[in-house]
Target: Phosphoglycerate kinase
Amino acid sequence: MLASKVGIQDVGDKLTGKSVLIRVDFNVPMKDGVVTDATRVKATLPTLEYALSKKPRCLVLLSHAGRPDGRVQPKYSLKPVVKVLQELLPKSKVVFVEDCVGPKAEEAVKQAKDGELLLMENVRFHIEEEGKGEDDKGNKVKADPAAVTKFRAELTKLGDVYINDAFGTAHRAHASMVGVETPVRAAGLLMKKELDYFSKALESPEKPFLAILGGAKVKDKIQLIENLLDRVQMMIIAGGMAFTFKKVLDNMAIGNSLYDEEGAKIVPDIMSKAKSKGVEILLPCDFLCADKFENEANTQICEDTAGIPDGWMGVDVGPKTIEKAHEMILKAKTLVWNGPPGVFEMPNFAKGSTAFCKAVAEATQKGCITIVGGGDTAALVEKQGYASKVSHVSTGGGASLELLEGKTLPGVAALSNK
Model:
């Protein structure tokens, strides 16, 4: 049960005077030693500020950055994040520590006082974090199991209490996510918010529950569709995978649109499961089509009855589909959205995506719990300025997808239960 995990606010009194080990997600873009987008650092501020308010001896921050494959690669150093953190928390002292385990790290923690923040170097500089990596010649190598156990024990030594606020990495069974064995292991505020919202949708949804699914390939979304068909009453299937459905079910001509041959074999099973579960599925009935995959292409609206002509491809849903989707969205009391309905990155093909954003915002205002899955959909909602108009935008692309697929996240399983 996602909502039954201990949160930082449940253990506030245990932070006072202690060394608090916090796994954060500071995997931020950097250029020439400067952080270019601090969104992820800002997202952990509520947790850091809450922890500091409890007067700990120090906060020890662990994070990964990039994919250094278990080797020290200076371009992936977390040192540039110190400046950002110091600006965001001017009343606290932020110190950079050049390793995340070993004598240097342990000494820094021992010396820290008065609620200092210690930002430890990238955990992925050690092969033991992921359990695998590359050697200097680029050959794939595995970590020695005994060394992994030692690394986990060394991380554990750094804190009296462990807080995990890195939801975006919760689907990875890495040492800093699952290997810290302090007596208390709690979710940070960001992690807790994610767990509470996904629990509302997946464990106790108010009905009717609607899933809006986009994405290019049916086979990539098969587990997602299968799991959600057991839970929802309504489903909208749009984006690239809609063409595979339309071709298989209605023998619709799809021109040069995306077609997923492997996924096509699964479509009849999906539809028969939906029928047996009484799930209403909405597929597009018209499309915006383009003669080239570029913003300035010629476009036309194609109805499903006539199909899409050769040399043309579907790039967005059409006006009739938008209207039908709008009606269905407003019926929902719980809504999960994963995958845009069109190529929203190109302004001329973004009409459907914008309309879906508006409809989901409208449903939210009417009391529907709306959850936007990470990745492309989160980027769309942010870009269109609707992030504050839905209930929750997930910070984890892969992690939120795995939860919606019905999987247990290792980083969540490792947390203490209430």
